[in-house]
Known about the structure:
alpha/beta, 13 strands, globular, binds adenosine-5'-diphosphate, binds magnesium ion
Amino acid sequence: PPPSAQQVAQALHEVFGFSSLRGVQDQVVDRVLEGRSTLAVMPTGAGKSLTYQLPAVLLEGTCVVVSPLIALMHDQLRSARANGIRAATLTSADADWRETLDAFRAGQLDLLYIAPERASQPQFRELLASTRIALFAIDEAHCVSEWGHDFRPDYRLLRPLLDAFPQVPRLALTATADHHTRQDILAQLGIGEDGLIVAGFDRPNIRYAIRPRDSIARQLKGVIDDNPGPGIIYAPTRAKVEQLAETLGKSTGRPVLPYHAGLAPEVRARNQSAFVGSEDMVMVATVAFGMGIDKPDVRFVAHAGIPKSIEGYYQETGRAGRDGDPSVAVMFWGADDFARARLRLSELDESRQQSERQRLDSLAGLVETADCRRAVLLRHFGETPPARCGNCDTCLEPVDVIDATTMAQKLLSA
Length: 414
Ligand code: ADP
Ligand code: MG
């Protein structure tokens, strides 16, 4: 029989130090403990790891976790071990394979993290057959779908492995999956439609605004002047990052630092920690900045050009206001952004073109809309929001309806 509610609460408290589950975590954990396969779509920071780590502790047998990056696995490993969970990884970066294999075979591991390419190896399937598997957790599950923004062919190798253990439940986890990607994840991983659980994506304290770009340095100065707290400005290129950081530092008198992958690692680390510790700093950055940065009091996120997709927009703007206090997200777009993105489409394989074009069309839809921005955003993530949020530019000020697609086509044919 599945563990009782009391056992769940006790493990949550004693192992993880949490007083309660958050949001949809309890729905997901309940399903998993009942042995039912599930796809959980939960925003970044919602606590996806706990939804497999808690069952891993409670259930008999090992939870096998598929994760796309060694760095992610080692982060997870550290935090799991810090909680006293018996966890290990089997990656090329590990020297203790033999110990891990012995512990696994002896049923002494709660969690085993593996990369997807491992899944296709016959020895690995034999290894799994040598002990009891409680659960397959597939993290970053959008990687299995060509519709997703980060397709990894290796994720397709998982299905035969999962099917070799039909009695073991599957828990797929992702932060970013539109309707197509979700349906595809369910199909690719053999999870029934009734297994889909979607968490609340709304960030009510973020005020969204999307404006045409004219004089970007002046427009960004306006955003900075209006928002005295810490902020992030995303710029499309390293050169633009450098240029804007310099200009805005002078024009606003605020501390402004650049961040991009072309800076020396020690400079990046220094700028990042200065930002995290500051109450008024502005970071001008490429999208390389933000992953894994825990700064709850970011008061604004501005985009100096269009993001890659609605998923990217949601993720990047979502770095504002994690503390729940009022925050703003402002995007400045140009028809040339869309024109350039459309030109780049033509360089892709035919199969990628279709999904990337749709991604760009969805983004154009958000930019062009006279409807509530939040409603468009939330509908994209499968929710049914109220028609008007009252906390975005189109709700607060009437806007001109702009056709970004036509403008981009005009630019291209000029
Ligand atoms: P995700 O993978 O969804 O982005 P994580 O699993 O990394 O999120 O969790 C984000 C943070 O939330 C972690 O610091 C985690 O310890 C914390 N967290 C998760 N669940 C809870 C909970 N029920 N109560 C308090 N904190 C939680
Ligand atoms: Mg995660």
